[in-house]
């Protein structure tokens, strides 16, 4: 059961009952829009493996490895598949926690697929944004323990995935993590911002978001954007050690505590999902935004300087 649902339970007889049920029904409507997409995604991607799941039911946790080459960019189909998997974890009685990592060397996730924002039709844009909202709500609002084992670069949407987890361990190395949206000429959505504030505090977020700062792993540790660094070869072992520690905490007390810390941030988006999607569509259709995205895409496609 997700944090949102348990919040409804805890407050069932309280004065917030009507407001929360209205939030829940809005959420359910938005989720049902995705049902057809889910079917399409599972049909279309039956032959592709965009992530691996390694479940250790004896120990009570799973490892989810993102595997969508070349850079684990998040497009509609990938997000839809991920949402189905996150739901499976949430419903599992055996799985208490999930280690989220990537099978692609040096890349955790390059964030949102920029092609989902560039010259995109309104329908697709709206489905994409709804799926992304759902991923965040499921991850940030999960009752399970999520530990991010960040094995490489983790900009923008990749950073959002990481900070939606409960604990972050990052590989030592020349990797970057952060919300760099301003460098693409776009503003980080309020729920990206709020998740960042909840992680590193208001002042650091204010600087980081305006500058589009990408932190090195050492810098990320210094501002608590990550909780621990590890040599690449030890990353998963360290994540498993941490998972065992979290799994040993009394479950209901931990879940209620997590829920109480995250409920307000989640409710803010849940109350305005449709308006948030409309803002995304309106914003990304602006000529100035399309121009910025085109320039950014071109800079990504430029031939890389040889290191030799
Ligand atoms: C309600 C809201 C209202 C208003 C808001 C409006 C707008 C919405 C805001 C949305 C917030 C946005 C969040 C995002 O996540 S945007 C994406 C940001 N990501 C990045 O900036 C990362 C870009 N990528 C990189 O920096 C590097 O690729 C990376 C990850 C360091 C890896 O480097 P390297 O190993 O050298 O790999 P390449 O750069 O050669 O990349 C390989 C290949 O992948 C393509 N690619 C990379 N990143 C992306 C991406 N994010 N989307 C799509 N494609 C990507 C790259 O172009 C290369 O392609 P090629 O064809 O040349 O092989």
Automatic annotation (TrEMBL):
InterPro entries listed in its UniProt record: ClpP/crotonase-like_dom_sf (IPR029045), Enoyl-CoA_hyd/isom_CS (IPR018376), Enoyl-CoA_hydra/iso (IPR001753)
Stored Pfam families: ECH_1
GO molecular function: delta(3)-delta(2)-enoyl-CoA isomerase activity
Entry's Gene Ontology cellular component terms: mitochondrial matrix
Biological process according to GO: fatty acid beta-oxidation
Pathway: Lipid metabolism; fatty acid beta-oxidation
Stated family: Belongs to the enoyl-CoA hydratase/isomerase family.
Function, in words: Key enzyme of fatty acid beta-oxidation. Able to isomerize both 3-cis (3Z) and 3-trans (3E) double bonds into the 2-trans (2E) form in a range of enoyl-CoA species, with a preference for (3Z)-enoyl-CoAs over (3E)-enoyl-CoAs. The catalytic efficiency of this enzyme is not affected by the fatty acyl chain length.
Name of protein: Enoyl-CoA delta isomerase 1, mitochondrial
